[in-house]
């Protein structure tokens, strides 16, 4: 069997408020295979976002092991964490966070340019992804000229622009109406599978989770 793209062992996170210690993650063990799309279910406040922040190397303070593409990354220094995020990970959030002064193509180009790609390569990659998501006629539109579903498609293309080994998504359709959410999720899953990336997608929507390869549930800080 191939090595997991993501593997966590005994991952823990606690917060202290006054004299009270809140244990958000109590020892999370998770492995995701190359190309596997996993739904992360859990009630609001169950720690889904905290788990994504941990494996996305977005903040410290975690105990346990985080391995991405076979390398231990949980205790890396800030610069090395940044490089790992740049080269190995893609992110999609509930709110798209597009740069308002950049058009759709430019928003998607940016991660590739930061990675060191040429302008021509970044542009070609951005246009190919946006076209695959049905935005071939919207390449030069700015975010305020796009619908909510279109903006989220741009965010999906941006996350995949660097060909990440692992895509992390936190309620990626949570800000969309049901019909648009279904369409965007279907396109998201199709494109992730086509790219061969793995994905961990946090959602509270059981119906959407059933469309993924596997479902894990976070309850009381532990995966079930």
Automatic annotation (TrEMBL):
Superkingdom to which the source organism belongs: Bacteria
UniProt-recorded Gene Ontology molecular function terms: ATP binding; ATP hydrolysis activity; transmembrane transporter activity
Keywords, comma-separated and alphabetical: ATP-binding, Cell inner membrane, Cell membrane, Membrane, Nucleotide-binding, Transport
GO cellular component, one term: membrane protein complex
Keyword Glycosyltransferase attributed: no
InterPro entries: AAA+_ATPase (IPR003593), ABC_transporter-like_ATP-bd (IPR003439), ABC_transporter-like_CS (IPR017871), MacB-like_ATP-bd (IPR017911), P-loop_NTPase (IPR027417)
Domain ABC transporter: 6-224
PANTHER family per record: ABC TRANSPORTER ATP-BINDING PROTEIN MG467-RELATED, LIPOPROTEIN-RELEASING SYSTEM ATP-BINDING PROTEIN LOLD
Family: Belongs to the ABC transporter superfamily. Macrolide exporter (TC 3.A.1.122) family.
Record-given protein name: ABC transporter
């Amino acid at each position: 069997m191939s090595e997991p793209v993501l593997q966590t062992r005994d991952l823990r996170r606690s917060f202290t408020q006054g004299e009270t210690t809140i244990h958000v993650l109590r020892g999370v063990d998770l492995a995701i295979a190359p190309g596997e799309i996993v739904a992360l279910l859990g009630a609001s406040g169950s720690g889904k976002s905290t788990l994504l922040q941990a494996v996305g190397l977005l903040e410290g303070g975690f105990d346990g092991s985080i391995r991405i593409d076979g390398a231990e990354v949980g205790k890396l220094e800030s610069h090395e964490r940044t490089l790992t995020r740049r080269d190995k990970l893609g992110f999609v959030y509930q709110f798209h966070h597009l740069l308002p002064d950049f058009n759709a193509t430019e928003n998607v180009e940016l991660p590739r340019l930061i990675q060191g790609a040429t302008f021509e390569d970044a542009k070609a990659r951005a246009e190919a992804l946006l076209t695959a998501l049905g935005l071939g006629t919207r390449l030069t539109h700015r975010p305020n000229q796009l619908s909510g579903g279109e903006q989220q498609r741009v965010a999906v293309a941006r996350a995949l622009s660097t060909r990440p080994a692992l895509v992390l998504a936190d309620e990626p359709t949570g800000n969309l109406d049901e019909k648009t959410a279904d369409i965007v999720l279907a396109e998201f899953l199709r494109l992730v599978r086509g790219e061969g990336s793995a994905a961990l997608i946090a959602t509270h929507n059981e119906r959407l989770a059933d469309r993924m390869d596997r479902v894990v549930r976070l309850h009381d800080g532990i995966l079930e």
